[in-house]
């Protein structure tokens, strides 16, 4: 008689299949929400990387201006920071190579800029890789 009572109380202490399914469902919902929330983190990290790259390129362009007397032309672009352009009287190498944006596209360069003609403009084409679209990032925005 004692063994029957012990078996019944042991069975009552375990989880039923329904309880296990409910717990697994709750865990799946939490994981799904976390994965969805983390999607935006990657995009924000890439935008932060663009900001850091632009600040680095701005510093290199300022050094170029100090040495050469003006910013590189649109045609010379960032390559003027890597190799000496014919127009530069004084020049010092600022970069070993021009960085790519986080979406693996080349940064655009314009001098004069679109919004501020007295300044240069650095442009990332954004996730779509096409210049002139809504997702572009510019140091003049």
Describe the structure.
The chain has helices spanning 2-13, 17-68, and strands at 108-110, 121-124, 137-138. The relative contact order is 0.10. 45% of the residues lie in helices and 6% in strands. With 141 residues, the protein is mainly alpha-helical. Strands 1-2-3 form a three-stranded antiparallel sheet, with helices on one face. The N and C termini lie far apart (83 Å).
Short description:
By secondary structure, this protein is mostly helical. The protein has helices spanning 2-13, 17-68; strands spanning 108-110, 121-124, 137-138.
Q: Within the largest sheet, what's the order of strands?
A: 1-2-3
Q: Approximately how much helix is present in the residues?
A: 40-55%
Q: How far do the termini sit from each other?
A: 83 Å
The global form is: rod-shaped
Strand content: 5-15%
Q: Summarize the main sheet.
A: 3 strands, antiparallel
Which structural class should the secondary elements be placed in?
A: mainly alpha
Total strands: the figure is 3
Order of helices and strands: HHEEE
> What's the number of helices?
2
pLDDT averaged over residues: 87
- Radius of gyration over all CA atoms, rounded: 29 Å
Low-confidence stretches: none
What are its keywords?
cell membrane, single chain, T2SS_protein-GspG_C, mainly alpha, transmembrane helix, Type II secretion system core protein G, three-stranded antiparallel beta sheet
